[in-house]
Write the C-alpha cells for this entry.
Amino acid sequence: MSSKGIQTKAFIKNKAYHLFAEKGFTKVTMKDICEACDLSRGGLYRHYGSTQEIFEAILDGITGEVNDFVRDGIREGISAVELLDNLLERMRSEMLDKEYSLSYAIYEYSCTCESDFMVRMNREAERKWQSLMEYGIWRGEFMPMDVKMMTDMILYVYQGVRMWSRVIPMEDETVENIIRKIRKDMVIEDE
C-alpha cells in the first residue's frame, strides 16, 4: 500500500474513533464516516468495507501499540517498574477520559457482531500483562504473585471503570486508588 493509502486509512480511523466514542458502535454508519472524512462512498470503501472493519482496525491499532511497547521494552531490558508505570499512567488517563472512551462502543460491538475478535483482543491483553509480570518477577522488581489472578484483576477492574465512566462521573481519587493498589500489589518498594 502506498504511503498516501496508509495516511488515508489512519485519517479514516482517527475520524471514526471520535464518532464511535461519541455515538457508540451501532449508531455510526459508513455515511457518517464518509461525511466526517469528506470522502465519497467509493473513496471510503476503497479502504474499508464496513464499520465493523474500521472499528476492529481502530482496536487493533490501540492494542498493537501497547503490546509492542511492552514487548520492545522487555527486549531492550527496560525496568519492569518503568514499563508498569507507563501502562498505569495510560490506564489512569483512559479511565478518567469519558469523552473519548470507546467502552460503550465496544459493548455494542460485542453484542451485535458475531466475531471472536474481542476474545482475541482479551487474550492479547492477558499475554501482555502476564509477560510484564513474569519479567518483573524475574528481574526482582515485582513481588512473587499469582500472575493469572493479578492479570484478571487489572483487566476487569480497568474495563469496569471504563464502562462506568460513561454512566457516572469518575472521581480522580477513585482512579488513583485503583492505580496505587495495583502498583502496591506488584512492585517491591525499596525500604
Observations:
- Residues 51-76 form the longest helix (26 residues).
- The chain is about 75% helix and 0% strand.
